[in-house]
Amino acid sequence: MSNHKIIASNFKTNHTRASTRDYVEALDRGMRDIGYSEEVFLFPPATALDAFETESAIRIGAQNAYPTVKGSFTGEIGLEQLGEFAIETVLIGHSERRHILGESQAFIAKKFAWFKEQGFTIFYCIGEPLEVREAGDEAVRRYLVEQLEGIDTGYEKLVVAYEPVWAIGTGKTATPELIEKTHAVIKRLCDRPLLYGGSVKPSNIEEVLKVPGCDGALIGTASWEVSSMISMLEISEKLKTEN
Ligand code: PGA
User: Fold this and answer.
1) What is the per-residue DSSP string for 146-182?
2) For 1-32, how does the pLDDT look when each residue is reduced to its tens digit (9 = 90+)?
């Protein structure tokens, strides 16, 4: 079995069009320097989407999009805008969209179904808030089941990311034991590649990627600086050859 891990960076509301271009150029060079030949996924803000020409396998995805080709959905982008840059990857269900922007599971499921219909690669995020984690394992399981409601978990272009809300952007990473335990629960619900996300950084990515059942990482904060992203890719590459 391949030991390849899927590494993805979520820029959130960071970087401009100009700085994203510089980032992609530096990442392209960095990936060549370290001999990283696998695909890396980047989710820049909508204003920085572009069809970057790179030698390395850098795949650009959208952090969000509306389930429409085009139309009257003020502030949103649709398939026509993504198509201009040949974008075929989208992030759906991120906790910030669920909890800050108030996206419901019904709407998320509708979005998922629509982008699946378009053949998109979908990075689908799930994860519990602190009060649910504190309520115990069964409460967490039920919460995750609800976040998979209406989702075709057999979709072949689906990548799932487990991101506990209390670990996102807080510097507080889940322990390897907790990631392993929760990933096992999710794998029983959905047998697709499963990433971990939540304060992954150069100092902990090795232990995260070594967790049995962890197929990669979705990284926010620590990926915004390109040198830090390259360090994490280098660690992932090293682990691949170690095994
Ligand atoms: P973080 O974000 O790495 O800053 O915790 C992860 C995410 O939200 O995808």
Assistant:
1) HHTTT--TT-TTEEEEE--GGGTTSS-PPPHHHHHHH
2) 457 899 999 999 999 999 999 999 999 999 99
Give 72 Cα–ligand 1 centroid separation in angstroms.
Answer: 31
Q: Domain for residue 90, yes or no? A: yes
Is this prediction's pTM over 0.90? yes
Q: Please report, for the domain that includes residue 194, its CATH number.
A: 3.20.20.70
Give the list of residues 6+ apart from residue 136 with CB closer than 8 angstroms, or none.
none
Residue nearest to atom 1 of ligand 1 (CA): 220
Which residue segment(s) compose the domain that 49 sits in?
A: 6-242
Alpha helices, DSSP H, located in 35-147: 79-83, 95-99, 105-117, 130-134, 137-147
Active site residue 237: no
